[in-house]
Amino acid sequence: MDLAISFDDVLSAAARLRGVANRTPVMTSRTVNELTGYQVFFKCENFQRIGAFKFRGAYNALSRLSEAEKARGVVTHSSGNHAQGIALAAKLLGIRAVIVMPSDAPASKLAATRGYGAEVVLYDRQTQERAEVSDQIARDRGMTFVHPFDHPHVMAGQGTAALELLEDVPDLDVLVGPIGGGGLLSGCATAAKAIRPDITIYGVETETANDWWLSFRQNERVHIPPPDTIADGMRTQQPGRLTFPVIRRYVQEILLVSDAQVIEALKFLLFRLKILAEPTGAVAPAAVLQKKVGPPGAKVGVIISGGNMDAALLAQLLGEA
Amino acid sequence: MDLAISFDDVLSAAARLRGVANRTPVMTSRTVNELTGYQVFFKCENFQRIGAFKFRGAYNALSRLSEAEKARGVVTHSSGNHAQGIALAAKLLGIRAVIVMPSDAPASKLAATRGYGAEVVLYDRQTQERAEVSDQIARDRGMTFVHPFDHPHVMAGQGTAALELLEDVPDLDVLVGPIGGGGLLSGCATAAKAIRPDITIYGVETETANDWWLSFRQNERVHIPPPDTIADGMRTQQPGRLTFPVIRRYVQEILLVSDAQVIEALKFLLFRLKILAEPTGAVAPAAVLQKKVGPPGAKVGVIISGGNMDAALLAQLLGEA
Predict the structure, then answer these.
(1) B231 closest CA partner among B153, B286, B160, B158
(2) CA-CA distance, B85 to B142, in Å (whole number)?
(3) Residue B315: its chain A contacts at CB < 8 A?
(4) pLDDT, average across residues B303-308
(5) Which residues contact A225 (CB under 8 A, 6 or more apart)?
């Protein structure tokens, strides 16, 4: 089966994102290297615009709309970073954006999305399906729906994170990233394998959100019930139709970490490296800190996917043992 | 009066620190620039080894000891970052170090200092003077006392932070740093004024810890009672004998911020820039976020001096309004 994206698509996305997305820093830590035995390179997408990698794919996708599509605007559903990614990209490109969000979403997320100028349409999670709400808006207003991950331009955009990382550290042995819907890892794996065919790539999810792990075992897209996990970016219930074949081809294995290991990694990043990762952003670092990847001495690139969290959640996590 | 250090001393320190201290990143933020109207460049010493700038001065000072002095070891008193700076520098240079710390210091700080291989000697804050305890040790064991700030090699070492910042951003209009004992700002001002004579330099302290502010008014080193402030690096009670003349000559003005403004800045850095500053590290950013420096559009360099904080304190700060 043909894959949804190629390395050329990632290169093309990089050209569009130049000067618009942040080229995020790669950080290293003597302490981490001593503790793990690897040479670890953190790609810090928590320093990306909107605080997460999602801006890359959103901007790439919106920038490729036709003038007619741009004039009619875009719609998506997300209670997380994709909402803000689309909202900011739309603002920069002068496109109207509607974000469908649950009526019980945190006030801070609603405010942040509205702060970028997007229109927020609320739906009731008990009585409505968000996909139906956004489809209806797309039909009524002629808007283009932009899927959070199962979209070639979104996938290619996210891949620019790995492109930058491999430019900075060309001889990486291992690449580790979190995997929710697969948008980030499909793009990053496409880029990394093209640049360095011998690289070993791991996706990491939390134990309860193991749809990818199960799908790798059964070699088909397994659907799981809504998982209970601290890492909200892991709450997708099934691998994407477009992302699954890409990841199946390029990714060596899906690793699982516990919520407790994620919280431990988050605290380690905060108090030792002095950087804030959101729980989903600490998922891949957790696997590295647990030494689940590669042989001793391996050069390991790990993606910190985002850093958006409110004070209440962080205070709660710090209060836990 | 001759000043204790010159620009040559800072350059010489930089040569000794090359490959040993981290060259810390300079971070920028569109959000900060929009909010303040300045172009702000954060020099991130929270990413320095031991999590604060103090390693620079400590290593420079210890590396300059004679072989006989190195063989006898060093002693200092500190309950904060200077302790860890001396401990790590001593370990790297193969020198024995004794750190005099209060018996009620947080267990995490005692453990961190011992973790670098230093010997910790505890004293009772109610009944003993720490200077007397360390003097006694210096006499008994023939060790060299290394003052936390009033020491030419310490001052020159700290100045390398500004040297790096001006190398990265040569056309800075304003430099802003926190001022406790004055070690950091005396070195940084010496470097910045030598490289860019027209630069305007501000020192920032918290309102209750206003010994420098008073000393600028009275043009002499004013001694204040122990101040109550969240920023523990501000708790020195009098400008240094060596640091005062340097800072009096090069620094335009001392700015005051409230503890509440420091906490607000700390939270802003954490949740918007995704980096952890300790309260003292957020003092200079607080003055910038309060727009207390320079005209609109000014290129403002600001030093985040450190990021060491335990989880309990951060949880407490997050719980406050």
Answers:
(1) B286
(2) 21
(3) 315, 318-319
(4) 97
(5) A237
What ranges in B21-120 are assigned the alpha helix state H?
30-36, 54-63, 67-72, 81-93, 107-115
> How far does chain B reach from its first CA to its final CA, in angstroms?
48
Instruction: Check pLDDT > 80 for residue A99.
Output: yes
Instruction: Give the whole-number percent of chain A exceeding pLDDT 70.
Output: 99
Q: Can you tell me the distance from the alpha carbon of B131 to that of B148, in angstroms, rounded to the nearest whole number?
A: 12
pLDDT confidence of residue A321: 47
CA angle (B261 as vertex; B190, A25 as ends), nearest 5: 65
Report the DSSP pairing between strands B39-44 and B26-27: antiparallel
Q: Which residue matches tokens 């909200």?
A: A232
**Alpha helices (runs of H) in A50-121, residue ranges in sequence order:** 54-63, 67-72, 81-93, 107-115
To the nearest 10 degrees (0 to 180), the angle between helices B7-17 and B183-195 is 110
> Domains plus CATH for chain B?
7-52+153-319 (3.40.50.1100), 55-150 (3.40.50.1100)
Cβ-Cβ contacts under 8 Å for B274 (sequence gap 6 or more): A46, A47, A51, A275, A276, A277, A307
A313, closest residue in chain B (CA to CA): B318
| pLDDT tens digits for range A240-282 | 999 999 999 999 999 999 999 999 999 999 999 999 999 999 9
Contact A44, A62 (CB under 8 A): no
Interface of A with B (CB under 8 A): 25, 27, 30, 46-47, 49, 51, 267, 270-271, 273-277, 307, 309-312, 314-315, 318-319
DSSP string, A20-45: TS----EE--HHHHHHHSSEEEEEEG
Cα separation, B69 vs B138, whole angstroms? 11
Query: What backbone phi and psi angles, to 5 degrees, belong to B168?
Result: -80, -35
> Measured at the alpha carbon of residue A98, what is the angle toward residues A50 and A118, in degrees to the nearest 5?
45
